[in-house]
Structure formats: C-alpha cells, structure tokens
Specification:
Oligomer: single chain
CATH architecture of the largest domain: Alpha/alpha barrel
Low-confidence stretches: 1-6, 775-791
Number of domains: 2
CATH topology of the largest domain: Glycosyltransferase
Shape: globular
Number of strands: 31
Mean pLDDT: 95
Helix content: 25-40%
C-alpha cells in the first residue's frame, strides 16, 4: 500500500484523494521495458496546472514545478528552482525561512535555504485539485496549500483558462502570536520554446489594481516585444490579494542565474519584500524572475486563508509546419498576449466559485459507498490527461478570423508523447469516454473533424517503419489513424502514423462507425449521424473489400493491421470481426435514422452472414479464438469482445449469443486476470489454452491499462461486478501503489512492471466504468436492448 504520513488529513480533503509523504522516493519504481529511448520522468509527478488547451505546468509532490507542456506536443521536464514557494515564520526570537522543495539546485540560487525535509507532511491529489499539508516540527504554524485550475465539466469557457490558484491556509495552534510570510517567485520563461534560455529584452513590471475583494498586487512578466507572433511569446503574471491584515509586497526583478542572495535576504529579514519595481530589460545571458510575498500575523488559535494566482497568456498554438492557431481562451481575453494580468484578475475574483463547482461535480461520486475509494481516486486523477495530453483547443488560424466563442473550434489530444499523434482513433475508442461524458461538445467536434477525412486522399509515398515498404499516406475510404501530429499540421495533414500502413487496418473503420453512433446515443445529436452518414457508408464499403473469401468477415493480413500493432492477426479474428459486426448493427440503426431503408437492409444482410461465419469459425466452445490462420490462433485475447462491449453500451442487439459472452468473460477473468501475476496487475492481453501467457509477440504479453479498464466496464455491464472491480484494481495498484506511475499512466506494462508509453490516452477508459455505473444510463446489464432511436 502507499505509505502515508502520520498527519491527520485536514477537513475538506476527500478521503478518496491519493496521498504520499512529501518528497518520499518510490522504493522500486517501474522502469521502461523497451530498448529504444522513451520518456521516463521518474515517479515524483503530481497534478498538472492549466486549462484545457492552454498548456500545462506539472508540479511534483516534491514541491517543484518541473513538467512543461506549454506548447503543443513538446515535452520538457526540468525543475526550475526560481519557480518556487518559500515560507517565513517568526515567533518570539525564533525564525525559520525555508524553500518548499525537498531537493536543491546544483548551481544557481545557492543563497536560498533548500531541502525541505522529506516526509514532513503529506501530498494529496484528486484532479484537478491537489494539496500540500506541511508538518515540520520547526514550523510553529499549521500550513496547507490547495492548488487547482478551473477544470469544470460542461464548462467551455473557464475550463480553457491558463490559470492556477494556490489557496493557502495557515493556523496558529500555539499560545503565542506569530508572523507568517509566503514567498512566490517565478522565472520569466518567455522564449524558452526557441531553446534559448538567455534571451535579452524580458521585462517584469509591478502592478496594483483595486478589486471589490481587496487590492490585487503582483508582477506582470513579458517578453518585451512589440507584437506576439510566435508560440512562446506572451506574458505571465503572479499576484495576490491585499486585504485588511494581509500585506502583499514585491520585487519585480531579480537575477535567476545568480546566487539569489539579495531577494532571499530581503524576504528572510521580515517575511516581506521591499516593493522594488525595476522594469529594466534583461540583457543577453541574464535570466530574470520576479517575486511576491504575502505576509500576515496570526494570534493564538487564529486561522487565515489567502489566495495566490499564477496566470499566463501564450495565445498562439504553433505547430511544426508553421500552422499557427489562437488558443480557445483568447476568445474571452483577446489575442494580444498581454492579458496574463487580466486572467490572473479573474482567477482572484472567481476562484471560490470555481472551487465550489469542482466540489459539487465530484461530491455525488465521492459520497457513493458502492464505489470503492481506490476507484474514485483513479477515476478523477486519470482526468489529468484531458489538459496534459499536448492538448490543442483552438478557435481559428492566426492569419484568419477567430471563431465565435459559441463555436468549439478544433480540439485534439495526443496518444502520448512517445507516439505524438492527435486523436489516434483506435486508442480514443477506449480513451474518449471522459470527453464524451464531461465535455460532449468537444467529443462531437473531434468526430466532426474525422468525418471529412474518410474520403480524402494523400498519395504522398512514405516509408513504413516496420517493414520498409513504400505506401501512400492516405487512401480514400480508409479512416485515418489520427488527425495529424504537432510536428506537422494537425487537421490539415492526417494519418501521421507510419509504423504500419494504417490504410490496411481492419479496426479503424469499424471504430469510426461505432464512435459516431455512441456519441449520437449519448448526446441525442441527430445532426452528427446526418453529417457522418456518407462517410459511414464509404468506410463500411472499404472495409468490406477485405472480405476476400466472401464469408462476411474482413480478413486480417498478419501485418499487424489493428491497434495491437506488433501482435499480428491472420484470417478472420475475434477482435476485428466483433468490431465489424457491432459497426454493422450501428449502421443499420443510423440508416433507419436517416431514412435509408435500402442501406439498412444491405447492412442487416451483411451482419447475418458475418454472425454465422464468426460463430462457425471462431467459437471453440469456451471462448472465441484469436484468429483463424495464425500460429497462435487458439489464444485467449482479453479484448476479444470489444465489439460486443460497444454494442452493449450503445443499446444495440447482442452481436454474439449471451451465453457465449458469459463463457468468454469468465475464461478471460480466470486466465488473463486472476491467472496473471496473482490477479494484481490487470488483464494480460493474451494467454494460451493451458493458462500460460502468450509469448508470440511483445504486446501479447503486456497488460494494456485502458483495455483493462474497458474490460472492467464490460464486466459491469454484464453484471459481473466482483470480477469488474478486481480486474480494474490491478491497474490501479500498479499505477498508484507500487509502480510510481501516477500522473503518467502508461499504455502498457509487463509482468515485471516494466512500462511502455507513459502519459497515455487509453487509460481514460476508466470513465467507461463510470458510464456503466451512472444512473442516467438505466440498467447497464442490457438484458434487453434499448429501444431503437425515433425517426
């Protein structure tokens, strides 16, 4: 189990919040399982800050700001010590001044007091909120900070803001008065995307503004340019509220790449700063920062709460081929890049309301005793990827007219930073449930962006990495693997994936049809089906062309040619065949919805033939064989009934007989879950008839986190609750208890716990479990299909 501090959890921190002693290392952290370089930032990660599409900043549970995702698709991991909270406490003749990071910089700012004691307090996380509860015997005050950004479901305004709030709570439990100061320093980061850390011309200026709640005091950090034309230009702001009994002071400029003695000495003298405003531009080779201090006295037994805000305005999302778009939040603040102060102002004005909205959203789930705390913990914390997944939410091109705020613009998040493809369709089949359930307008926009791509063609030849063959980038009729990648031009150049030839994949077209129908059933938006109907027909006709033997099932070609892209399928397969049949069921319903009875009859005929062949060729009396022609055709695949899972959750008729579903799920649970690693690591992808792990391919012997959560959702839908919870718990255990993988949940791990592809989209499938549990979806065992949609 996760070690915890002896400190009592303060009121207001939910029992389901994940916790760990501040800065405590992981004894045996998971390591990468691949020989080629992949991202491994280590196990110290915490809740990221920043709105959806605004770029994010990851603050670790050691106290440092270290993970920088402020430009689309670029991952930078670097603790920047100047970005720091520090505290001053004085009681009588006893004074303590301490930076709140358990580590220390190697070079600069040596005059500061570093290395806050490891374990002297507890970190808690329940995205989008996190807490540091400090418990050091040298501190006379009890000190807690809650941090969050306004990530609010069904909110398409504030959820996009580049803002972070830090709500500090201090209490004096002693019998004597004390003075407390909180120092927040921030480096002028502008221009870092150009790999130039020593740009000249940065300017920091102190600001004051009278608000209804008090006087806003802080510093605006700018790049010094006249106009913002590039992705890393704009502004930052740090600020706090000066109210009766609370004084906010500042230094607008200090040298970061020095020893920091002047600023630290100023703060250490009395817990305040000297209100020095110096707007001198930085010179070449000089890195500057700014600091604000919030200072107040506490009488015995007194408790005080003070907010501090960080905001940034980097209005341009810039992609590799020069495409530049305005980020979503600019629809509300403008595109000048000089609005960080205005964003910070709204944060200080609205933070209490935002916080209450987050609490109100989470509370019904947190208070439900039928949901275990570990599940609640993972459910909310896996949402970190919504903002942190190189997420782009843009309103219009820089050289065009920005969209109306009522429009959603474009939205996309990557598969992961190791495989940086936007909205990888075979992965979002599992990982898009958070978007669908919490921001459905964005989910529908993604699918609307896919619709026109189906018939598009890009004949550009490129080399396929896995086999060296030449293949066109995009063939008409093939649903693209993705909507592009950050290093190119997303939405304009799709199908960036080149490890296999995705034009030959046998799952993408079926998944496109199922996602479109799922989103319609969830939202009731008939226009989605009407807009997508021509593409649905083209996609199904294209996939039908791979039915070379005329049995009604498209054949896999052993390439591999589906989401398991190193695990080949040959001939008819349980996975792709099941998806095909479910897609045909969805197509029949969509045909009826748009009044195309001819298409409905055609797809119903295809379905009947496919079902007969599927049962005859793949059912072995206990489960469905992996495929018909492969060397391990009788392997038991954990994900074999993905099509039936979607048919269930969409209210479609059964794809295969109910007794076969039950038998197969029981076999998977016994062999792939309980029979693998003692049932403590999730569902291994493949097992052999004797119960051993399928070693025919790397991916066969992996656990896929999102697939396991999807399987657990399927088990819930089928009334197998105990199996569902046990299956999902294995993924939770490795992620949050043993592997140190929190806030970087990977795609996969093996039996030794070695992981691959951290910060991955597919684990969002845990929200498919919530879909199955949510009361507004009715009885989720689906013993009877939902009625067909009205025409």
């Amino acid at each position: 189990m996760t070690p915890t501090s002896s400190v009592r959890r303060p009121a207001g921190i939910p029992a389901a919040a994940w916790s760990r002693p501040i800065g405590l290392p992981v004894e045996h952290p998971s390591r990468p399982r691949t020989d080629y370089p992949i991202i491994d930032d280590g196990p110290f990660q915490g809740v990221p800050l920043g709105g959806i599409g605004a770029g994010t900043i990851g603050r670790t549970y050691r106290g440092d700001f270290a993970r920088w995702h402020l430009e689309p698709g670029r991952h930078r991991y670097e603790p920047l010590p100047a970005n720091m909270f520090s505290v001053y406490m004085r009681q009588g003749d006893r004074t303590v001044v301490q930076a709140l990071w358990t580590e220390a910089p190697r070079t600069f700012l040596q005059a500061w007091r570093w290395r806050y004691p490891v374990g002297a307090g507890t970190y808690y996380a329940l995205y989008p909120r996190a807490w540091f509860v400090y418990d050091w015997d040298r501190f006379p005050a009890r000190l807690t900070v809650e941090q969050f950004s306004p990530i609010i479901p069904h909110n398409y305004r504030e959820s996009s803001y580049p803002v972070a709030l830090f709500l500090w709570t201090a209490e004096n439990p002693t019998d004597g008065p004390l003075t407390l100061g909180i120092l927040f320093t921030w480096q002028n980061l502008l221009g870092r995307g150009q790999e130039q850390d020593f740009l000249a011309g940065h300017v920091n200026q102190a600001r004051r503004e009278t608000l209804d709640a008090g006087e806003m005091v802080g510093v605006l950090l700018q790049d010094g340019g006249e106009a913002v034309t590039e992705g890393w230009q704009g502004s930052f702001a740090i600020a706090a509220l000066q109210t009766p009994g609370v004084r906010v002071t500042y230094r607008s400029r200090f040298r970061v790449n020095g020893d920091g003695a002047e600023l630290w000495g100023d703060f250490a003298a009395d817990g305040r700063l000297d209100d020095r405003d110096d707007a001198t531009p930085s010179t070449m080779g000089e890195i500057i920062g700014a600091g604000i201090a919030v200072t107040f006295n506490l009488a015995p037994g007194e408790r005080r709460q003070v907010p501090i805000v960080l905001a940034w305005d980097l209005p341009i999302a810039q992609f590799g081929e020069g495409d530049r778009w305005y980020r979503r939040y600019t629809a509300f603040f403008g595109v000048s890049g000089r609005n960080a102060w205005a964003i910070a102002r709204e944060g200080l004005t609205r933070y209490a309301d935002w916080r209450e909205q987050i609490i109100a959203w989470q509370q019904p789930i947190l208070e439900d005793p039928a949901r275990p705390d570990w599940y609640k913990q993972a459910l909310f914390n896996e949402l970190y990827f919504i903002a942190d997944g190189a997420t782009a939410w843009v309103t219009g091109p820089v050289d065009g007219t920005p969209d109306d705020p009522a429009e959603m613009g474009h939205f996309a998040q990557i598969e992961c930073y190791d495989y940086p493809y936007y909205e990888t369709l075979d992965v979002r089949f599992y990982g898009s449930f958070p978007l669908l359930m919490l921001w459905p307008a964005l989910e529908k926009q993604v699918m609307r962006d896919f619709i026109p791509t189906v018939q598009q063609t890009d004949p550009t030849l490129r080399r396929i990495v896995s086999n060296g063959a030449q293949a066109p980038r995009k063939v008409a009729g093939a649903v693209p693997h993705d909507l592009g990648m950050p290093s190119e031009a997303p939405w304009r150049r799709t199908n960036a994936y080149d490890f296999q030839d995705a034009n030959l994949w046998k799952d993408l077209n079926s998944k496109f049809v199922l996602l479109l129908y799922r989103d319609y059933r969830a939202t009731g938006d008939r226009s989605l089906v009407e807009a997508g109907w021509p593409a649905v027909q083209v996609a199904l006709d294209y996939l039908k062309g791979f039915d070379r033997d005329g049995d009604g099932l498209p054949e896999n070609d052993g390439l591999p040619d589906q989401t398991y892209d190193t695990w080949p399928m040959r001939g008819a397969s349980a996975y792709c065949g099941g998806l095909w049949m479910a897609a045909l069921e969805a197509a029949v319903e969509m045909a009826r919805l748009v009044g195309d009875e001819t298409a409905a009859r055609r797809y119903a005929g295809w379905l009947a033939q496919a079902q007969a062949s599927y049962e005859a060729k793949l059912w072995n009396g206990r489960y469905y064989d992996y495929d018909t022609d492969g060397s391990h055709r009788d392997s038991l695949m954990a994900d074999q009934l993905a099509g039936q899972w979607y048919a269930d959750l969409c209210g479609l008729p059964p794809v295969v007989p109910d007794d076969h579903v039950r038998s197969a799920l029981e076999a998977i649970y016994q062999a792939n879950v309980l029979g693998f690693a003692g049932g403590q690591m999730g569902a291994v992808n493949g097992t052999r008839p004797d119960g051993s792990v399928d070693r025919s391919a790397d991916q066969a012997e992996e656990v896929w986190t999102g697939v396991t959560y999807g399987l657990a959702a399927f088990l819930l839908q089928r009334g197998m609750e105990e199996a569902a919870w046990r299956t999902a718990w294995g993924v939770y255990r490795v992620t949050y208890e043993t592997g140190g993988l929190w806030f970087r949940t990977p795609e996969a791990w093996d039996e030794q716990g070695r992981f691959r592809a951290s910060m991955y989209m597919r684990p969002g499938a845990i929200w498919a479990m919530e879909w199955a549990l949510s009361k507004d979806m009715g009885n989720h065992h689906f013993s009877e299909p939902l009625p067909p949609p009205a025409i």
